[in-house]
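Two quick folds needed for the group meeting slides. Do the first one here.
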Amino acid sequence: MSSSLDRLMQVASKRYDVELASLRPEDDVFEKLGIDSFQAVELMSELELEFDVEIPDYELQGVRTFAQLAATIDKRR
C-alpha cells in the first residue's frame, strides 16, 4: 500500500468511526464509510488539507475506491 493510501484510509477511518482494519483499497468509499455526497465533499476538504493538495471536482468523477482516490491525490503531489 502506498503511504498516501495508508494516510487516506486512516483519516477516513477516524472521521467516520470505521475500523481501519476493515478498510480495503478496493472498497467503495461511499458504501464502506456510509457517506453521502455532502459528506464526501467534507472528507475531500479534510484530505486536501492533510495532503496539502487541491483537487478539482472533475478529477474526482468516476473515483469510487480508496485506491482510486489515493492515486488521484498522488497525481497532485
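Then this one, please, same format:
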Amino acid sequence: MSKPVATETPVTIEDIVNDVRARGDAALVEWSKKFDGTTAESPQRAVAYGDLPTSAVLAAAENVRTWHAAQRPADVTLEVSPGVTLERRWAPIRSIGIYVPTGLVSSLIMAGVPAQVAGVERIVVCTPPNGSAAVAAAAALLGIDEVWAIGGAQAIAAMAYGTESIAPVDKIFGPGGGAVNTAKLLVSRDVAIDLPAGPSEVVVVADVGFDPVIVQQELDAQMEHGPDSRAHVVWVGEDLEAALAQVEEYAAEHVALLGERAESLADRIRNAGAVFVGPFSPVPAGDYATGGNHVLPTGGWAKSTGGLGLEAFMKTVTVQRVTKEGLDRLAPIIEALAELEDMPAHKITARR
C-alpha cells in the first residue's frame, strides 16, 4: 500500500504579515527569497541606475506639487461662547510608507510629493526588486533617500511593524496587487492606510455618435492595468438622467465624459474618484501629468470617500481653552449630561 503524498500547507497573507511582525529581518529575507528570488541575507536598499526621463519626472512632480500645495487646509480658532475658545490645527504625519508596484514611478510621485508638501519628516519607500532601480532613481530626483528593494505583503508588514533594519511608519500609502491590498487591510488594525485599492476602473460616458476611436482608447488604456480591470461605456440616449444614475451606481475610480451632453454632467456627478471632461482630457493625463492624484477609490468606495489629497498626509489636533468664567457657563450643561449618563466624576469637574 502506497503512502499518502504529503502536501504543503498553503501560506496565507496573514501568515506572512504575522511572521514578519514576529521575526523581523529574518522573515523579511526568507519571504523575499521565496517570492522575488533574492539572494541577500539582509534587507537591501534599492540602487539607482539606468536611464530615466528626468524632465518628465520633474515636470510631473512639479504639477503634483503645485496642485497639492493649493490644498493646504486652514487652521481654525473660534470663541464658541464667552470664555470658551477652540482651535483646530493641522499637523503633518511624522512618518509614512509608500508601496510602489514594480517600476511605477508615477505612484511614487503621487504619494511622495504630497508628503513633502505636507511636511512629513520621514518617507519610506518599498518596491519589488525587479524595477527598483528606476524607482530609486526617481526617488533621488525627488529628494527621497530611504528606498528598499522589498515587495509584496512582506513589505507592508515591515513598514507597519518595523524590523531590525526598517523602522515602522505611522501611515501606509500606495497601490498594489491582491496580496499587497490584503496585507494593507490586515495591518490597518494597527497602522493607518490610505485606502484599499482594488482593480482599476473607468466608466466612459459618451453621446451617441461620438467618435468610437476615442471611446476605445479610454477602454484600452484602463484595461492595460491588468486583466481584472473594469471598463464600462454608458451611452447618453434620450434620457440624460438615466445615464447619470448609471454613473452614480457604478461609483467608478475614473469617469470620462465625451460629448456635449455627457460633459454637462460634470458638476452633478457625486460618486467618482476623478472626472475627466472632454476629448482632450484622457484619463492617462491624470495618471501621469495633470498634477491631480491618481490614487483613487475603487470597488464602490467612491460613494463614501475621495481620492488622495494633501490632507491625507496630515492630521488635526484640537486645542480647547476655557476660562473660569467660561467653565461657570458650561457647568450646568456638564452636570446635566453627566447625571443623565451616570458619570459622577465627570460632574464634579464642572465646579472648580
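Slide caption for protein two: The first strand starts at residue 76 and ends at 81.
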